[in-house]
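Issue 218. Parser rejects a valid record. Input:
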Amino acid sequence: MSDAARPGPGEELNLDGPPVEPRQAATVIVLRGGSDHLELLLVQRNPAQRFMGGAWVFPGGAVATGEGDGDAAHRLAAVREVAEEAGVRLPDPDALVKFSRWITPAMVKTRFDTHFFLAEMPEGQEVTIDGNECVDFRWTTPRDALEAHRNGLLLLVFPTIKHLEQLEPFPSAEALLEHTRGRDVRPVEPKVLGAGEEARVVLPGEPGYEQEQR
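Output the parser choked on:
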């Protein structure tokens, strides 16, 4: 079984109690390349962190209490998290383009209901990682990131891999944004089948998804 289909670092399975209510969260896929090409920003989580330590991810995090509810709260959280983790200041939360929504599997103890947004890198800005939660960054094409992961050079987790696979076919940042604007975004909730070394993550429509977990 591919490591890509396993739960990520620090994702403990909840095998006994009822499912944990997922925390609301937001993530931004920061793009550059205009009409010429497509690159995106990945940041590396601090390896010392228990949850997803060392993984390369899109900047993001949980919605804060004071940011309210609903879509506006996710947009505010997205802008804040990119500024905190990557030093990138996105000028307008309303300009973010909703790309996807992923809900952590019910069998995982730490759960998030994450809204993924697209945003172009503002002109004249530079990435500056916080050095605490995130310790490194890179601009990469989706294909190069996936290839580095397959070669053991880049630790990626399941949601990041699946998003990179969706992004790979687009020839440019502009083409991706044009395709995504106005699209109906439906929530995706993977499932974890099995436990221990046999645990694997499956998506809706894949074999085993409809089977009972408990």
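Fixed in the parser; the record now loads. The mean pLDDT is 88.
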